[in-house]
Every structure is written in C-alpha cells, then in structure tokens.
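Let's practice the habit of predicting before peeking. Look at the sequence and jot down your guess about where helices and strands might fall. Then scroll down.
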Amino acid sequence: MDDNSFEDLIENLFDGVYYVDGERTITYWNAAAERITGYARADVLGKPCAANILRHIDEAGTELCQNGCPLAATLQDGQSREINVYLHHNQGHRLPVAVRVSPVRDASGAIVGAAEVFTENAELHQVLKDLEALRFKASRDELTGAGNRRAAEIALKTRFFELHQFGTPFGLVFLDIDHFKRINDAHGHSVGDQVLRLAANTLAAALRHGDLLARWGGEEFLVVLAEVDAAVLARVAERLRVFIERSFLMIDDEKLSFTASLGATLALPEDTPESLVQRADALMYRAKEAGRNRVSF
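Done guessing? Here is the structure:
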C-alpha cells in the first residue's frame, strides 16, 4: 500500500486519529477527529495538543496534559497505551472517549512522534446520560417539574456552607397558595394539579439564574435565593407574589385566578436549615393572618 492509499484509509476511518511530533505538536488531524471534537484541521495543526484543545481529563477530573499524559509517556518509553478519558469538545462540554496511543518511529527505530486514535465511548456516554436522567428525576417533583423536598434540603446545605465559609448571604421564601382546598373542592383535583403546575412555571419564570424553586409539599413551595441582601430579597419575593396574582387558568369559560401568601427571610449565621425554614413558614402564616396575598418579611 503506497503512502497516499494509507493516508486515504486513515482519513476515512470512523475513529478520530491525530499525530504529534516529539514536542507534542499536532501534525495530522483526520476527518473523524474533526467530527468528534468539533475542531477543524485549521484550528489544531501546528499547535501543541495541550493548547486548550482536547485537554483530556480522567474520571477524577485530573488534567492529563499536566499530569499523566499518555502521549508524553509513550513518547518517553515507546509503549502503547489505552485509556478512557473525557476530551474537551469545541463547544465546551466534555465527551467520553476511548484512547489508544502508539509510538511513531523513523527508519532507524527512533521515536519521532506518536499517534492517538480515539473513539466515542458510546456505552459510557449512555451510562452518563442515564445517570443524569436518574439524578434529575430524583431531585424533581413529578407533578410540577420544580425541585422536590430533597433538592431544597441539598440547596439549603450548600448555601449554609457558602454562608459559613465565605460569608455569602442568601434568603428563603416560603410560599403557600391561598385557599387551595377551595379550588380542589370547587373544581376537582385535576384542576388543582393544573394550578400547582401553573404556579411552579410562573415562579420559575420570575426567578434569577442560580435561585432554586422546590415544591415543599402539598401547595407549599420553597425558593432559595442566592447572594441576596434584604432589599433584593424583598424585591424578588414581591415579584413572586405579583406573578402568581396575575396568572390564571381558563376552565371552560371561567377565569380561575388565585393568590399566594409568602414568608421571606435572610439566613443568619446561627441558623440551621430547620430553623430557617421554620422562621419562613411562620412568616408565611403571618401573611395569611394579615389577609393573604402578601409578603411577610
């Protein structure tokens, strides 16, 4: 087989293939490497493989380019290697691949470079997707799509850690839909479920990136607000109240609107997740007693 035929074969492989010279500079990059990584030849040829291109990491998150690069080891000892890694895709995400590294030698047998062949690890990729789906399901309320109570408890623990370690403030809003039993009694549980879904979607739309909405139970929701002071807490809580008040369902020709009562408080260093939730809950009941459809701070 002549050189051109061999290069055509490499070019048309399903697996990604690239070569590096002794300095780990990329000298060849086939079409499959472009497809798998999102990097075109022009993006990588003539550049060191560690130059913010593939940046392999292992399952522990270790940057192999800096510590444990299989290419560097093969260039050093001439041994072939196989390893499962996560490469850096051009769009920013990590992609699991199975990697095989072999030395490239000249006519005298001296090592002049290395070749890496990498294949999308479809099985591992599917396992990771399945795990992510299970993780999502385990932390989501099936009816509303909001976080569930477990998700809220995890978020509270995380925010308390940030508060204690870094002094990062956060707030909590406890929200209860007003007269929810009346809605169920008058329209049935199916409509009640629609109200809960509408409330969750409305609240989620009113929140900022980094805030967490969770269904605490029944018609109660918790909102964990990251990095807020009293003024921001008040502003966001009032926005939640107004958004709920101005949302409605059409049941046949009837417009069904509803309101919510909210308790809002900042976390204190001496708080625990339990004491913080209890205080926000008590404030919510104070809003109920004061006439509903209001926020108590």
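How did you do? The chain has a mean pLDDT of 88.
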